[in-house]
Amino acid sequence: MTEIIYLIITLIATTLGAIAGIGGGVIIKPVFDAFGEYSAADISVISSSAVFAMSTVSTLISAKTVREQKDSLKLMLPLALGASLGGYAGELLFSRFTAQDSLIRIVQNAILLVLIIFVVIYMKNEERKSLQRNDWYSAAAVGLLLGCVSAFLGIGGGPINVAVITLVFGMEIKTSVIGSLITILFAQGTKLISIAVKDASSFNIKLLPFVIAVGVCGALIGRAVNKKVSDKAVNRCFIAVQIIIIALCVFNIVKNLAA
Question: Hey, where are the domains in the chain?
């Protein structure tokens, strides 16, 4: 029964992730933490696998849209390269904390809480300003930073990606969503390869095949919805999910401090 609940959560998370570019992992991670059945390392692998599957499908679906936006396309390539390097760096950093499960949960949820509060404040402002950067080295640096953060937190990093991409490049939210999905794809792909090369057998991954299948379904549903709704609707969905995540992070921090 618990496994079915996890899969339903994953479907909802990846569907919302595909709609609003939030990756799904940013929901999966704190919700799975709240249940407490899996270790932080296991949750990281499960979450990364789900959002990798979701972002792969969503990116392929969005490929035509990306090609049509030539100004954005030249930034997506260095963004992807930076995210790949960041994903590897984030996994190396995370691996140093895996023996201290309660500590890593507290650190992850605290960092996520601070970042999500920033995201909500920035994205809720309809007159938000941006740096309007349009160069490849800024894109590579942003990809590196976002990839590292998302791999360390095990969340995909969607809401953080969308906010930072919007802040730095001044893209419309739907274009930022595509940039976010590409960042997630390359960062989590690098992380999963790194884990597989080291010792994948040490993780509890019985849910993994089902989570990946559900992640693909969530991507297909989410991208279909994304095409039919306005930027304003996507933004509202984005903000609503962040408020839920803030509450979950606070709960998880208190729970692990009391443990």
Answer: 2-258
